[in-house]
Amino acid sequence: MAKRLKLTGFARFFILLVILAPLSYLIASYANGEDGMENIKRLVGITDQVEQPATSKNQGETAIVSKAQRIATLEQEIAVLQDSLEAKDLEIAEMKRQIRLLKGSR
Questions:
Q1: Rounded CA gap, 51 and 67, in Å?
Q2: What is the per-residue pLDDT across 54-103, written as a single tens digit (0 to 9) for each?
Q3: Alpha-carbon distance 37 to 29, whole Å?
Q4: What pLDDT was estimated at residue 59?
Q5: How far apart are CA 32 and CA 35, in angstroms?
Q6: What pLDDT, on a 0 to 100 scale, did the predictor assign at position 64?
Q7: Hey, is 100 helix, strand or coil?
């Protein structure tokens, strides 16, 4: 008959912590829409090292172009939002005028 291994309370807690902590981190990462395993690999430093070529002038130019496109898109969005704001301001002014007319007719 083999003796049963007896663990102290701290040993049980430690084993639970070793299993539960990474599992809860993976679940939380998944809930946040991230890749938990990749995050752990990055934290530990075991990520697959993909060789990236040195930054060239062409890559810098494409980054500048994409930033310029983003700026142009944001400026267009700002213009649309400003037009919408002006329309809402006019609508509010018209409604206030109608309220004054209704209050005056009593």
A1: 25
A2: 555 666 677 777 888 889 999 999 999 999 999 999 999 999 999 999 99
A3: 9
A4: 66
A5: 9
A6: 77
A7: helix
Whether 38 shows a pLDDT value over 90: the answer reads no
- Cβ-contact 41, 34 below 8 angstroms: no
User: What local confidence, expressed as pLDDT, does residue 91 receive?
Assistant: 97
Q: Is 50 left (phi over 0), alpha (psi -120 to 50) or beta?
A: beta
Tokens for 6, please give them: 């007896």
The two three-digit tokens of residue 20, written as one number: 């539960």
What is the DSSP secondary-structure string of 49-71? ----PPPPHHHHHHHHHHHHHHH
Q: How far apart are CA 24 and CA 16, in angstroms?
A: 12
Domain boundaries, the chain: 9-46, 66-106
Tokens of residue 43, six digits: 């934290």
DSSP string, 4-24: PPP--HHHHHHHHHHHHHHHH
Tell me how far apart the alpha carbons of residues 43 and 25 are, in angstroms, rounded to a whole number: 12
